[in-house]
Amino acid sequence: MRTAVLLVGDELLAGVVADRNGAAIARALAARGAPVDRVEMVGDERDSIAARVRSLAARHDLLVVAGGLGPTEDDVTGEAIALACGGELPADAASVDNPVGSAAGLRLRCEGCDLWVLPGVPAEVDGMLPAVLAGLPEADAGLVRERVVATAGIPEVRLAERVVAAGFAPPPGVRLSYLPAPGSVRLRLAAPAGVPPADLDAAAARLREIAGVAALPAESLAASLVAVLAEAGRTLATAESCTGGLIGGRMTDVPGASSVYLGGVIAYADRAKVERLGVDPALLQRHGAVSEETALSMARGCRERFGADLAAAVTGVAGPGGGTPVNPVGTVWIALADAAGAAAEVFRFGGPRELVRERTVNKTLEMAYRRLREGPA
Ligand code: ATP
Ligand code: MG
How many whole angstroms from 65 Cα to the centroid of ligand 1? Predict the structure, then answer.
């Protein structure tokens, strides 16, 4: 079965809105045995949409179009479909219920292709995907199974060297891909239906072995941290300056985190560090906000105020401004405090503000994870 997705919207091509529908549709279809082999984007222009629909429909068995289906003048997908597939919206088009919004979707046959037309709002696409999936033939033939081994603290190239040095080869038909993020790389094994799940499990277990201590027990750093906290019966609290709550956000992304994550303080200004975390103003004055002393004091204060077993604190210069000779942009202190004491480490993360913050979040989660897993260094 050949499957394609066509995303409609000038704002997508202009980069003003980051696409969310392509990934959601592709993931859902792959999980149901209809992996997508092409995703395209086109602007809000009737004739170009019609041309892409005609061409994609001719080469695929299933085509999902999303966007530009609303009633406003900039929405021309309906007209384009009529143009591409013949007639004033083709007579045999069925309306598809929209449980989330008002604009209904359409399903019709076009060039022998099963064509679904959905609105563009991501929540509405999510709401209508079950109908698309229910319309698929009961085919297990193309079903892609996957296993993901997440790692942290090892660069992608180093990991790849180890995998090669260990002589790892995926089972026939299985594809191994490296999915790097700042501070964390995921290894993904994807297999067509013919591959026995046990072979996939064995390959994933071998990758875990090769990654060694870098391998994480769950699919993300935060989920791994939640898992080890739960296992140890410990609680965590956070004190964040330059990450502004991103670490807390990541912790609370994990379902069930409430049993181990108590909460956090965004202590961005010096005054907040003093009032919310009990950092001594004289210490701040003497060493500055971005310093080992301040990071340690934030972690200790946080641990005490939350009554947590473990506290993590970060303070740094995310940039682009604010760098000094002592603390250039990218300098970040990360401190952990637990019953055994407190320790801090300094990092010089490169890259723009967003990347410095992302690296800080991941490094903090990793340090907390390792502290629980391996005990204080
Ligand atoms: P409406 O009836 O609400 O106008 P529509 O079908 O006309 O829905 P669009 O006008 O294309 O959809 O988009 C509606 C909103 O959804 C816009 O804010 C748009 O930026 C957003 N959107 C559309 N496509 C995507 C996408 N692929 N990823 C993320 N957001 C999207
Ligand atoms: Mg619209």
Answer: 12
